[in-house]
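Open question from group meeting: does this chain pack into something compact, or does most of it stay loose? Before anyone orders reagents, we agreed to write out a predicted structure and look at it together. Recording both the input and the output here so the notebook holds the full record.
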Amino acid sequence: MDKTKVRIGLIGTGYAAKLRAEALMCDERSHLVAVAGNTPTKTVAFAEEFHCTVMNSWAELVARDDVDLVIICTVNRDHGAIAASALSHGKHVIVEYPLALSVAEAEELIALAKIQNKLLHVEHIELLGGVHQALKHNLPQVGQGFYVRYNTIKPEYPAPRKWTYSHELFGFPLMGALSRIHRLTDLFGQVLTVNCHNRFWARETEYYQSCLCVAQLSFSSGLLAQVIYAKGETMWQPERRFEVHGEKGGLIFDGNTGVLVKADETTPIEVGTRRGLFAKDTSMVLDHLFDGTPLYVTPEESLYTLKVADAARRSAETGLTVVVNDN
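Structure tokens returned:
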């Protein structure tokens, strides 16, 4: 790695990739060398906007000698394969969650990064956002927590025919949307059991128009959490709500508005912005590479959440409550 700049290859041309590229352009320690995407016309336009080279495939990009760090911002299905190839070529890796759609594959990637002595960073910007930081700061005020409800519901009519509505490309809903579980494991620790029910509405095999995923997580602390993740044409009311109920009070976050509820008063909670989180994550990775400062999340923590999400998948498939195995 050059002592003054990290040379970067970016895989993907969508929303997250654009925010990454904008962050890189604003940081003198980085140089965006090349980009690879799934749609040639979009990839060319992206390369022109951010002044980098177009590659025909991600495989060609990760093999470049002038790339030190690979950032993976493409469909969930391909995260594991690209990360494995990049690490094998001696590159540092940033990958948007999930690390992989298979627990075994994720474990292999973490082991490979250690063998190669390279950074493997799984992005979890939900931990950096204002709501999560406010939750963490105010959690002690509610005493022993016993119930959590976390709902993210997004009506879309008509539903877009894109990868986030594809079984293969997105993965099981709570694995593809891993942040819904990761918020909980970060705040409340070890999960003992998971019970999950999942339903899709589809007019074709590859893409669906709606999904509803409901999971109950039982934590070792005794806390019970209910997670609803839903999107598409059969949803009618948008919702982004996080509730924590404790023995001394409650925390209620509706969108970006939060309150602390106690027996004698309700107090508004200041919630920071959701803007600029990809830039913050990118800057923290560069700080780590140049100065060795610790990152806010480890790949092992993301892997544990993936195990919980995989338990939810198995529960939805079997109709049984599944014990989370952390071996």
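Observations to bring back to the group:
The chain has two domains: 6-123, 127-274+307-323.
The radius of gyration is 20 Å.
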